[in-house]
Each structure stands twice: as C-alpha cells, then as structure tokens.
Amino acid sequence: MSHSEVTQYMGLRGPALSILIGVVAGLAFFLFGYDQGDFASILTVGAFRSQFPQLDTIGKPLSETVAAVQGITVGIWNLGCFVSAILTIFLGDRLGRKKTIFIGLLFLLIGEIIQCSSFSYAQLMVGRAIAGFGNGFTTATVPAWQAECTKAHRRGTLLMITAGAFIAAGLSFSYWMGFAFGWLDPNSAAWRAPIAIQVIFILLTMSLMIWLPESPRWLILTGREEEAINVLSALNDIPKDSEQVHQEFLQIKDAVLEMSKGGFNTVFQMGDYRHVHRTVLAVTLQIFQQSTGVNLVTQFLALMLLQLYGFNGWQARLIAAGAGTEYFLASIVPVIGIDRFWGRRSLMMFGASGMSISMVILTIMLKLDTTAAHGVGTAFLFVYCTFFAIGWQGMAWLYQVEVVPLRIRGPANAISTASNWVVNYAIVQIAPVAFHNIGYKTYIIFALTNAFIVPIIYFFYPETGFRSLEEIDVIFHTASTQPKPYLNVVRIAANEPLWYGKGGDEQFVYSESEWHKKHVRFSDEIKTSDGGTTTLRDSPEEGGSSDDGTRIGTFDNSEKERDYRGSSRGSDTLGQHGQRPSAMTRVSSNGVSPLRPNSSRTLDGNSNTIPGFEGGMGEEAAPSPVISRTSVDKYAARGVRSAGSGY
C-alpha cells in the first residue's frame, strides 16, 4: 500500500506513532509518580531536616505541631493539583488537549526549579504549590488525550501502561534516587539532586509533545475537521481518503454532533445519556482510589519504616526503594491482562479486597510490636503495594475517561481528578497527625474503607472493557429507558454484545448500523484549514437557496416534524467554541462528498421520510438538501446515540 497520502508526525505513523503518544503520555505520569514519591525519602535525609527543622518529625517525635506542618508541606502539592484540575473544567476544551498538557509541564518545570534551589521554608512551599498546579493540568488531560488517540481494543492496555506502570516507575525511581543521593548526606545535594533530576524528564516530555498530533475528537469538536482526518490517517497508517478513515471519522462526528451541545452545567443534568450518573461514577472512583490509603504508604514509606518499624535512615530508604520496584513490577500485571482476560471490575474488586486484608494484618503486627511482627508488617507493606498496583494504580484514570461521554468529558474528568486531589490532600494532611495520636489504629480506617469499596464496585460500576467510547454511550442510553438505571446499567453492560470483539478483530460497518441510520443528516463538506465554510450558514432558515434559486432543505410536514421544529432552539449549541461542527461527510477515493441517507431511511422507526434525500453511500447522488441548524439540533437531541468508534 502506498503511504504517499498518509500524514506523518515526527516521521512516524500507525503503531509507531501510537507508541510514541503512549510514551509521552507515560512520561507525564512518570513525573506524577516521581513527585508523589520524592519526599518519602527526602524527609529522612539529615541535610534536609537541618535546612527545614519545621518538618523534622524524627528529631521531634513528640511534637504534634511538627507533624501537622509536615502534613501541610507534603499536602500543598495536592492543593495545587486541585486548583488546576478545577481550572481545566473551564480552560481544557478551549485550549485543547496538547496546549493544556504543555502548560501543565511548564508550571511543573518552574515549581521543581524553585524547590531544588530552596533555602527557606516559604520558598519550598511555593515551589511545591506551583509544581502541583502544573501536575493537575497534566493529570486531568493526559488520559483523555491518549484515549482519544487510541483504538478501543488497545485502550485499556495503553492507559494502564501510562497511568499505571509509568506512575509506579516514577515512584520507584524517586525512591532509588533518594537512596542513591542519600549517601551524600550531610551535603545538601542529598536532597536537592533528587528534586532537580525531574527537570530532565520535563524538558524531554515538552520537546516531544510539540510535534505530536492533537486529539481527533477535539479537532472535530472545534470544527478543524481536515486536521482530524489527517490525524486519523496517521494513526491508522492508511491514506486519508480510505474507507476505514471515513468510517472512523463518521463515528466520531456522530458523537460530536450529538454530544457537543454540552458545557459545564451539562455535567449536572441527567438527560438520556445519564450525565450526572456517569460523573458520579468517575468522581466516586477517584475518591475510592485515595481512600484505599495508598498515599499514607507511598508518600511516607521511608519515614514510616524509620519511625514505626525500627529501621535506620539508609535501611528505610533501601527498603522503600525495594518496595517501589516491586510496586512497579506488579503494575505490569494489569497491562498484560486488562484487555485480554479481566476487564475493569474484577481487578478493582480484587485489589480492594487484598488491600483490606493487608491493612488488617498491618494493624495486628504493629499492635504486637515485636521484631518478628515488624518483619511481617514490612512484608505486608510490599503486599499492600502489590494489590494497589494491580487493581487501582491506573484504573481510576482509565475508567473516568471511559465512563463519561465526549459531551462532558473535559469538565467531568476535571471534576473527578479534582476530587482525587482533595482526598489525597486530606490523607497526607491527616496521616502524620493520625500516626502521632493513634498509631497502628490508623490502619483500621483503611481496612474498613477498602472493604466498603468492593460491594459498591460490584453493584454500581458497569464493565467498560473491550468497548469503544461511543459504544459505552449506548449502554447508558439504554439504561435510561429502564427502571433502576443505577443498578441495571451493570446488567446491560454485561449482556450487550461487543461490537468489535475483545481483540478489535470483528467486522462492524458503522455506516450500515441502526444507530447511524437513526441520526438525521444534513449536507456539508469537511471544514478545511483555509477557512472553508459549511452549508449550515446557507441553510434555508438563514436565507440559503439552491443553485437555481429555489429554497432547499424542506422536511415533510408530519406531526412529529412539526413538533420537532416547534420546540427547536436557535442558539448555537456548541457553547464555548466559536464554530459548530459540520455535518457528516464521506471521504471517498474521488475526494470529499456529502453523506446522504437514501430516501427510504426513516426517522425513529416511523414511515416519515425526508424528501429530497437521494443517492446512496457508494454512488453518485443528486444534490442533497441543506437542513437548518435548528432542525438538526432537535433531531440530534432526540435521536438515538450512535455506537462505537474504534477510538
């Protein structure tokens, strides 16, 4: 096959391009993991404690004030993440996925430079807050960007690599850097160098991000359709006028036409696609991830080993590094099996069950407080990390992208990510004080929260594995038509056939599906980068006409059509964007032509046809009518959502 018409990014296309996108997304989450873990070792370094005595709980073990200040210092990073995650609600869809990520990396770079050069406590706090502010932008956006550039049957695997294995790798690497440079103590390089190393990875990620493609969904959402087709061509490694690119563009465009009418307020409206329901699922899952107690362990691991388990400084840092390595290796397990065997629900229930048992054993061992018990407790810190890495490390980030629709994906993901940071802050703020006041009983809290999570996942969370993002919309739409949708959506997801199969190898011709046929089409051409206009602007209700001067785009005068037109809205439904997406188009070997349903296609299953729609998908068609903006809005709002893009 000739690749002369295939767009390339950095000279790459197809699987190679997808891998590079995954690597860059992974580097962003690697930095997230590194930032989560760097203070775990630094807090035990003598030079750091001398520079910032306000944080020295080792030298002042009985001071509740020092414990509280330590929690605030570690937690202010999470507050920075929270603020930027909230801002992503309002800025993310305006800026686009790439720009939002790049801005986040820039703030992260500034924050790390300030931290590693700190000589005062105030400077350190400012640096951590700015670094967290940058990280919030990236973590709220990277999963959506990668998911929207990824095939459905590879999405789970690739996002688990990114938001699972790369986070664990960053955490593990930070522990090893803390151990390695800890030998320089009492030189300040013992704590400055581990922070400064992040700058290398930030600059690498920024330099690669510039040259990679934007999300094709976001491009279509903002009317940049020619660019979207170029991206789809590059990701599939096939010419942009191919049938496969046409089918995928068609599916994504259907989703955009239906879902682009949303904004921030839409997140809090139920609607036929159950927006509130799906947002609650995403938010609750992020809260659950932090309620497992993971940051109690990861952000204070070396300090915990030193203060509670009786190890000295270098021993605590070495064991923490070993635990981080095991944590990383365990995170590879879901990468191997999530899109082959297990799906999402079973891994989450498995992980929560194991963490609950681990917390019970940790409680017992610290209560016994013997040398042997300390050894067993240390081993179960490893076991706890294993269960979290397998069941929860990347799952909350993956599931939140899958469960919310395109219409609210930006604000909903930002809200769910923000909830993660709020609970994360609460955990790291409370942990030092809790261990100071109630000691081993702190573990009991998280044993109970993990046990509580299991039945909630079982009864309320539908399986999203092996399905395209748009196919998940259909499942929730179906649930909205049945009683007890909060519970029934789990059953529907379990029973609904997979459109593309587990491996994405089943044939599914979207243009011939019932879901696509229930969308009303209007004639248009793909928007081009040189500012080409759409026929929406020339619609009959805007004074448009055909070449011979006659008005076009007339519907039949059925009662259903009069009802649709009578209640339609005339406002631009895209809201925050300057352009409304154009209509579906067909990309053929002869160029771009409008997609026209044939005259026998019906609306909502009745016999009311749309006069004037002639021609089929694979033949020359008569000039098709233009359907007005208001009519399209109502038909899109009332039609059944389409299923399954491969992305």
Kindly describe this structure.
The chain is mainly alpha-helical and 647 residues long. It has a domain at 14-460: Growth Hormone, Chain: A (Up-down Bundle), CATH 1.20.1250. It has helices at residues 14-42, 46-51, 64-95, 97-116, 121-147, 152-182, 189-196, 198-209, 216-221, 225-236, 243-259, 275-291, 294-298, 301-308, 313-342, 345-368, 371-391, 395-403, 406-438, 442-460, 469-480, 485-495, 514-517, 559-566, 629-638; strands at 585-588, 591-594. It has a two-stranded antiparallel sheet with strand order 1-2. The longest helix has 33 residues, at 406-438. Residues 520-529 and 532-647 have low confidence and may be disordered.
The overall average pLDDT, rounded, is 77
Tell me the name of the CATH homologous superfamily of the domain at 14-460: MFS general substrate transporter like domains
Instruction: Outline the low-pLDDT stretches.
Output: 520-529, 532-647
Class per helix and strand makeup = mainly alpha
Q: Tally the helices: what do you get?
A: 25
Q: Portion of residues in helices?
A: 55-70%
End-to-end span in angstroms? 23 Å
Strand order of the largest sheet: 1-2
What is the succession of H and E elements? Answer: HHHHHHHHHHHHHHHHHHHHHHHHEEH
**Rg from Cα:** 27 Å
